[in-house]
Amino acid sequence: MGALLLLACSRQPEHAQHVDQLPVIYPDYVDVTIPVGIAPLNFSMADDAVTTVDVLVTGAKGGTLHVNGDYADFDIEEWHTLLMQNRGAKLTFTVCAEKEGQWTQFRDFTIAVSEQPLEEWGVTYRRIAPSFEIYSKMGLYQRDLSNFDEEALISNVQMSGMCVNCHTANQTNPDQYVFHIRGEHGATAIHRNGKIEMIQAKNEQLGGAMVYPGWHPGGRYCAFSTNKTSQMFHTASIQRIDVYDASSDVFVYDTQTHTILQDTLIMKKYWAENSPNFSPDGKWLYFTTARRQIYPTDYDKEKYSLCRVSFDAETGHIGTEVDTLVNTAKTGKSVSWPRASYDGRFLMYAEADYGYFTVWHPEAELWLYDLKNGTTRRMDEVNSDRSESLHAWSKNSHWFLFTSRRDDGLYTRLYFAGIDTTGRATKPFMLPQRNPKEYYRRLMYSYNTPDFTEKPVDKNIRPSKKMIEEGERIQNSVRN
To answer: 458: closest CA among 169, 157, 76, 126?
Structure first.
């Protein structure tokens, strides 16, 4: 062990200066908790003047890794072996840095390797420029979480003027998914039972398009909202853009009969219902609702409450009463994006001062609702002073992901955290990259609508350019 410690700074002079402070690294992986199987947590020193970094990783249950270079670049296979060997234990990182010819050794830090596996193969997301006018280059992607491989599922460079968004699988299973195509060839693409259907994007009776989706676990039904969305711009605010809906409703779509199931209980005339999500057992439909305002003058008075209504999958009918779980009349805040954990224990949501487009709200935070006892709390252990939003659960409910602008305030990046049975989360860590400092400095796109995927999306079940351009769409009927 003594010999290994001497190797920790094998490329530096013998008389390195020891300092009693943690290294400032990018990304900040100090004291995070990670699952076995995650890609190497490569990092750089935050100080650009550092020319060389030397890192020794020692496992509490055995095993070591030693790297030396302009950033810490761990071998993928060796990294995975070390994590497997130290599941349920900690890894200790000894970091030395060379700056202007002088070496400094910092205080060691640790990373915990969780007993809880992630189990998901990877993640899917949209990458989009965080702009209100540029969308000529965007796409839906999948990323292997065990390494750094990323692949485009569909990109709008295939055809001009197309906007793609909201790729949503059914409980992380990519064999059943839905996403939207906007523009000249607009449609809602639904894949189920081994085939792709292109659904008419708009229906006159709805008054808008099929927007934010939420699958019923049985696979036959999918809830959507239909929104008339507008943007407005601030001239003197750290918040540049606001998004509001002149109107919005929630409905359930029957993919088997291509029928829109309307119900006045979740489509009230003077209320805006939004962001539907089924419970993992399919018995409840969660959604948010706000009293409609005079837009755009009263945009900041639009505040959503969290509600739920029962759902009968046998008949396809909504219940007769709406339960209000989080009431804006009591909190003075606005709820968006309710997402229940797949074990049925918790429901995570974002909260902001008003509205629902939380990616543009610096004050937006994640909250956790306990479905067992009806209590709710702000997740201080994962929130920052920048926007947190667009969260999703792993299938085993031990991990979750979310987007945040904590990195630079401009771009939403993807973060992961573990969560225990009491609802306490671990310190979040950023999506690993091969050379993270270089990658994120050059990436002029935000991560949007991310989710876990239990396996890669099969190339044979993706819509082709020809299918999108042909223009044939399935028409919907409406059942009240």
So the answer is: 169
Residue 268, SS3 per DSSP: coil
Q: How far apart are CA 245 and CA 230, in angstroms?
A: 6
Q: Is 16 exposed, middle or buried (0-12, 13-18, 19+ CB in 10 A)?
A: middle
Cβ atoms of residues 321 and 309 within 8 Å: yes
Measured in degrees and rounded to the nearest 5, phi and psi for residue 37 equal 100, -10
End-to-end CA distance of the chain: 73
In percent, how much of the chain has pLDDT > 90? 68
282 neighbors 393 (Cβ within 8 angstroms)? no
Tokens of 399: 């991990």
Q: Within 13 A of 257's CA, how many CA atoms are on the CB side?
A: 11
Rg (CA), the chain: 24
CB-based contact 83:447 (threshold 8 Å): no
**3-class secondary-structure state, position 42:** coil
Model confidence, pTM:
0.93
Residue 308 is which amino acid?
R
Encode pLDDT of 257-297 as tens digits. Answer: 999 998 888 888 889 999 999 999 999 999 999 998 887 88
Buried b / exposed e along 347-378 (16+ C-beta atoms within 10 A): bbbbbbebbbbbbbbbbbbbbbbebeeeebee
Strand, coil or helix: 262: coil
Pairwise CA distance, residues 430 & 29, whole Å? 8
Q: What SS3 state is found at 398? A: coil
Contact of 27 with 44, CB cutoff 8 Å: no
- Structure confidence at residue 5 as a pLDDT band (50, 70, 90): very low
Q: In the chain, helix, strand, coil percent, each to 5?
A: 10, 45, 45
Pairing mode of beta strands 109-113, 33-34: parallel
